[in-house]
Amino acid sequence: MDSTATRSGLDGVVVADTRLSEVDGERGRLVVEGHDIERLAGATSFEATAGLLWTGALPQGEALAAIRRALAEGRVRAFEQLEADELPRFVDGMDALRAATARLTAEDGFDAPARLTGAVAVYAAAWARTRAGGRPLAPDPELSHAADTLRMLTGELPDPARVAGLETYLVTVADHGMNASTFAARVVASTGSDAVSAIVAAIGALKGPLHGGAPGPVLDMLDEIGEPARAAQWIEAELAAGRRIMGMGHRIYRVRDPRAAVLEGALARLEQAGLANGRLALARAVERVAEGALRAKYPDRPLAANVEFYTAVLLDAVGLDRAAFSPTFAAGRVAGWCAHVLEQRATGRLIRPASRYVGPAPQA
């Protein structure tokens, strides 16, 4: 590649060597610390996955118990610093999450990955509870991170099947290569700034609709379609009007997003438990019709289901309001953000790319 060439979206530009995850867009493969996501999610707890990202090995025994205690302590400490009365002024959950997280300081111990990860879950849940007209619930340190997060989000002690569904989701989205929010966190970390600042920057990036804002609209789409028999007509009308099909296509994957398969499987298990709200058949029908219609309209652009397609249906089935989808995404991804902050500090340098000036020349 010409070293002077401009890549406005940094496509194909390698900015770091990482041990954390690899996204293979051609083969539709996501590897997290040597583990295929299909094998990791659904078989590994969020605590174990976080430990894997933070230490490089799947923790067991006392090491795993220590991570669970650290996450619980992070939730408890974050709740103690929560300014609950300020939450109602935020219409958008990501605004609330960004503001609450920004109040934390490294001096109070929130430079530690487990503390920050616990805090993001608490603040995402607190805003969701406030939006629903309730009061934020104090964490229960005796519960697993996924179970306590779901309890704080919904206000109820959750069914184990729903906990398993949310846990699969949190593990699935914990890390995903050099995405926009992860890059934002690494840029801030590269300056020598604290981890709280890096995570706040990442939350700001995740808020953008081109990154973390699409799961809710997928559910809106499924609601409009209503039943599998209407999928073809609805999708053809959307394409004819020049509108995009939500949950289809990805910047990196040329085939189906492997995370979509993981979340589809989690939804199928919820359906077997009678908790999927009857949406699985509709989602599968819409995906099948949409993929065929997109292939016919754009034969040179591979557009298949991405992670957001089944995220919407799964999070709805575990009991979340769609307004809480993006903050819950952050509650999973923060484990990866923290891992990238640690890695950047250990192996990176100040990230300072060049730009090409195309403005007017100074007048003589």
Automatic annotation (TrEMBL):
Coiled coil: none annotated. Keywords: Acyltransferase, Transferase. SUPFAM superfamilies: Citrate synthase (SSF48256). It catalyses: oxaloacetate + acetyl-CoA + H2O = citrate + CoA + H(+). The keyword Cytoplasm does not apply. InterPro entries: Citrate_synth-like_lrg_a-sub, Citrate_synth-like_sm_a-sub, Citrate_synthase, Citrate_synthase_bac-typ, Citrate_synthase_sf. Pfam families: Citrate_synt. It comes from the Bacteria. GO terms for molecular function: citrate synthase activity. Pathway: Carbohydrate metabolism; tricarboxylic acid cycle; isocitrate from oxaloacetate: step 1/2. PANTHER family: CITRATE SYNTHASE, CITRATE SYNTHASE 2-RELATED. NCBIfam families: PRK12350.1. Belongs to the citrate synthase family. This is Citrate synthase.
